[in-house]
């Protein structure tokens, strides 16, 4: 039995009745606590009454703390309204709303330098409530219960800039919030135009997703437009995504419904850096350098780093060792990222590198040019691995999608 209204086993019916009884004190505080709503929490916790109750009570507290009942009256800051990509556009064949997330043009770093993380998360909470409201409207309009959303992730242009650690962490917080407070809301998620980097990006966010959510993710190949039209009528899909829908002015991207983001002008910036925690700290003597080695076992892994220096600039470059086991000078190794001096004492530096070859990669902090000052450098370096299942899936699709 699916655990949905009209498809409950005797045991599930009993659990629903008991669950309603256990949480009756908080039901008046919830927007529409019908059987459909309560069953979402039960399904999310495999009909474990204790866990389902704990989850729902936590959600009630969340609604109170974040004033969710009034969140649709709140207006996000201008920079978020202008540049946070995504939007509701059309309905699938069952009448469920469709939400588009447009990843490529999203300036994640610009957003975090121009708005608070709290406002960004609050905006995503507002989006979740917009979807809930749309589901309620569709329920009224169609005469059948609508409680899920179809997501389309347009990954064209997904690049190393999107792997910036503070941005990934903020997105992880949103995913946790979504999983904990809007269970069983996702119907299916289509990933379209996924580039080679997608398995690495997916592996970063996978820990925030429940097993059930992961099963609903479909990475589509070159025929993605045809696949979408199996689930959504052409008149409900923008021309940009293979349908016939346009804005009233004929815009094929339906920009009145979907925000396509873009680079944020620096006039919106309210800070020049995002506070970060560094895992390592080292004192580099005057006239010397410090090397950190990372073994890359197969191509496609990504090195991600952040560092800052105290008081003065520091040189930084990445090399590939040509001999194993012994320390090599910069001139003896293959240069992968040219060494240059960074003003990391003014603004922390961060970056990513896709490793095209296996081997020992050396991140070298260079203070050889300074004959007077030692430098303290704080840094974090990580090796990001691709998700093997999605990598395999993309190979099966013939890697016919845009690179």
UniProtKB/TrEMBL annotation:
Transmembrane segments: none annotated. Pfam families: CRAL_TRIO, CRAL_TRIO_N. Residues 76-249 form the CRAL-TRIO domain. CDD domains: SEC14. One of its GO terms (molecular function) is lipid binding. Keywords: Lipid-binding, Transport. PROSITE patterns: CRAL_TRIO, GOLD. The keyword Transport applies. InterPro entries: CRAL-TRIO_dom, CRAL-TRIO_dom_sf, CRAL/TRIO_N_dom, CRAL/TRIO_N_dom_sf, GOLD_dom, GOLD_dom_sf, SEC14/CRAL-TRIO_domain. The keyword Transport applies. Residues 275-383 form the GOLD domain. SMART domains: CRAL_TRIO_N, SEC14. This is SEC14 like lipid binding 2. It comes from Sus scrofa. The gene is SEC14L2.
């Amino acid at each position: 039995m699916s655990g949905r209204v009209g498809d409950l086993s005797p045991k599930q019916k009993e659990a629903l009745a008991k669950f309603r009884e256990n949480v009756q004190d908080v039901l008046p505080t919830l927007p529409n606590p019908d059987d459909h709503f309560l069953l979402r929490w039960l399904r999310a916790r495999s009909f474990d009454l204790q866990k389902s109750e704990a989850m729902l009570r936590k959600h009630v507290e969340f609604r109170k703390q974040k004033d969710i009942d009034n969140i649709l009256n709140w207006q996000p800051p201008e920079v978020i309204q202008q540049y946070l990509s995504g939007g509701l556009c059309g309905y699938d064949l069952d009448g469920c709303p469709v939400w588009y997330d447009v990843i490529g043009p999203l300036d994640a770093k610009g957003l975090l330098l121009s708005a608070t993380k709290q406002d960004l998360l609050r905006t995503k909470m507002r989006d979740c409530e917009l979807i809930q409201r749309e589901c309620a409207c569709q329920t009224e309009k169609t005469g059948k219960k609508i409680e899920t959303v179809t997501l389309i992730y347009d990954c064209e242009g997904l690049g190393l800039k999107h792997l910036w650690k503070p941005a990934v962490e903020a997105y992880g917080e949103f995913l946790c919030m979504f999983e904990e407070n809007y269970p069983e809301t996702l119907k299916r998620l289509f990933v379209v135009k996924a580039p080679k980097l997608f398995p690495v990006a997916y592996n970063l966010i996978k820990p925030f997703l429940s097993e059930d959510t992961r099963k609903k993710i479909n990475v589509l190949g070159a025929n993605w437009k045809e696949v979408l039209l199996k689930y959504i009528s052409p008149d409900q899909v923008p021309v940009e995504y293979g349908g016939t829908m346009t804005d009233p002015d004929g815009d094929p991207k339906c920009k009145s419904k979907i925000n396509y983001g873009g680079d944020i002008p620096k006039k919106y910036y309210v800070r020049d850096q995002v506070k970060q925690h560094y895992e390592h700290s080292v004192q580099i003597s005057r006239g010397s350098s410090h090397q950190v080695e990372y073994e890359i076992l197969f191509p496609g892994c990504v090195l991600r780093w952040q560092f800052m220096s105290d008081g003065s600039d520091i040189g930084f470059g990445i090399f590939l060792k040509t001999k194993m086991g012994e320390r090599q000078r910069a001139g003896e190794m293959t240069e992968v990222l040219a060494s240059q001096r960074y003003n990391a004492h003014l603004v922390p530096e961060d970056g990513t590198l896709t490793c095209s070859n296996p081997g020992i990669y050396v991140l070298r902090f260079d203070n050889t040019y300074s004959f007077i000052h030692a430098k303290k450098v704080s840094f974090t370096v990580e090796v990001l691995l691709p998700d093997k299942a999605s990598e395999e899936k993309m190979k099966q699709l013939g890697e016919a999608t845009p690179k």
